[in-house]
Amino acid sequence: QVQLVESGGGLVQAGGSLRLSCAASVNTLSWYDVGWFRQAPGKEREFVSSISRNIGSTTYADSVKGRFTISRDNAKNTVYLQMNSLQPEDTAVYYCAARGLTASYNIWGQGTQVTVSS
Length: 118
Known about the structure:
Elements (H helix, E strand, L loop, with lengths): L3 E4 L2 E4 L4 E7 L8 E7 L6 E6 L6 E3 L7 E6 L4 E6 L8 E8 L7 E2 L3 E6 L1
Parallel strand pairs: 2-11
Antiparallel strand pairs: 1-3, 3-8, 4-5, 4-9, 5-6, 7-8, 9-10, 9-11
């Protein structure tokens, strides 16, 4: 069973940057689509970005387009989320998730906290 571990969260001022990492416990992360999601206090979890398993096509939520970039390094079994121009509304716990042959993401990491101060 694949396990995912996020890292890279922290406290940053508005306008700053962070890079989140999602590392897999297996060397077959390339077989999976990987997505980033976030959940702010009192809000539902929302989609942030995803990257496909084969050609690495990417998708972004409108709220992060132009500021966030998702990428993957299959040799390192890691997916990254580069977050620039961070705003206080980006404050949330960020989760990475993977899906193999299922339609929904069914493998989740434990999350990493991102806090953006104004």
